[in-house]
Design a protein that fits this description.
four-stranded antiparallel beta sheet, Pseudouridine synthase, elongated, alpha+beta, 9 helices, 3 domains
């Protein structure tokens, strides 16, 4: 028999989710059977798996150690020895439920192959190195990033450290209530203001998108911050309203203002000029600001643990520029 005492790390999970994480190799049918037969109990009572876990709850697995071990795999990445931790100066915001980091250009948001190293693994390593999670806690919940940036786009990555943090971030990203802003540097004197709509299609084989008269409807907001006449470049504030792959890069190129350094949608001659003269080696696009939605008590239908996260982050502005000013 093994026992799990629910901590902040698992609070807000459904019991069936915790069981699936703890017995990660077991089929769903096995877990539901063990719940029905009372081989898995919550606080000493029969449970069906739909219960929301609270801190202090006790989950008992009345199974042999051999059976439990046969359905488990290590929660630690196989190539942990290769992973470097997120640098302290790249942590923009952190509380007990979420962490926001500045992803450098050239690093994946999440790995696409087993041996990839991404910002996700770097965040896990930071949490492990600082004792905020351990190998045991990874058996029941694995912190993970909730938004994605292109490999060569730098900026804010949001990750949940707890189930409640992850669920809340996923909710506000999905319903678009969190506002996401980027800074871009484009060639030409851009005269863009307001929200622009278009249709986007993606060629999965070439990992490239196209703006046309069909496909997904996208919305992107633009505001000119500054125009440099000498270099003929414009600094833009961009709001990503819909969140499709390569949306900002392709939309700006379609409008006639390619991002400097963008090798896929940009201008080859422009990129070469700025590479040779200004050492620009990656696209000049940064996810620099997020604004969390205000928590409306009258619309509070959240589970308690998630509501606590929502209250704490209500209306909060997390901005790379403000962070850099402090250091």
């Amino acid at each position: 028999m093994q026992e799990i005492v629910i901590t902040k790390n698992e609070e807000g999970y459904k019991l069936k989710k915790l069981c699936k994480n703890y017995l990660s190799e077991a089929p769903d049918s096995f877990i539901y059977k063990m719940l029905r037969k009372k081989n898995i109990k919550l606080n000493g009572k029969k449970a069906d798996g739909s219960e929301i876990l609270e801190k202090g709850d006790i989950v008992n697995f009345y199974l042999s150690d051999e059976t439990i071990q046969s359905f488990q795999k290590s929660g630690v990445t196989n190539n942990r020895e290769k992973v470097s931790s997120v640098r302290a100066e790249d942590i923009i915001y952190e509380d007990e439920d979420i962490i926001i980091v500045n992803k450098p250009s050239g690093i994946l948001s999440q790995k696409s192959k087993a041996d990839d190293i991404s910002i996700n693994e770097m965040i896990l390593q930071y949490l492990l190195d600082n004792g905020k999670i351990n190998n045991e806690s990874l058996m029941t919940f694995k912190p993970s990033v909730c938004n994605r940036l292109d490999r060569n786009t730098s900026g804010l990555i949001l990750a949940g450290k707890t189930p409640a943090g992850s669920k809340y971030l996923s909710q506000i990203i999905k319903n678009r209530s969190i506002r996401k802003y980027y800074q871009a540097v484009v060639k030409g004197q851009a005269k863009l203001k307001g929200i622009y709509k278009a249709h986007l299609t993606k060629d999965e084989n070439n990992n490239q998108v196209d703006i046309s008269d069909k496909g997904f409807i996208i919305e992107t907001g633009f505001e000119v911050l500054e125009y440099n006449k000498e270099l003929d470049i414009t600094y833009l504030r961009v709001e990503l309203i819909t969140g499709k792959s390569h949306q900002i890069r392709a939309h700006l190129a379609h409008l006639g203002y390619p991002i400097i350094g963008d090798t896929k949608y940009g201008n080859k001659n422009t990129n070469e000029y700025f590479r040779k003269n200004y050492k620009i080696k990656s696209q000049m696009l940064t996810a620099y600001e997020v604004i969390f939605p205000h928590f409306d008590v009258s619309e509070d239908t959240c589970e308690d643990a998630i509501a606590k996260v929502a209250r704490r982050l209500s209306g909060k502005n997390v901005n790379i520029n403000k962070y850099l000013e402090r250091i």
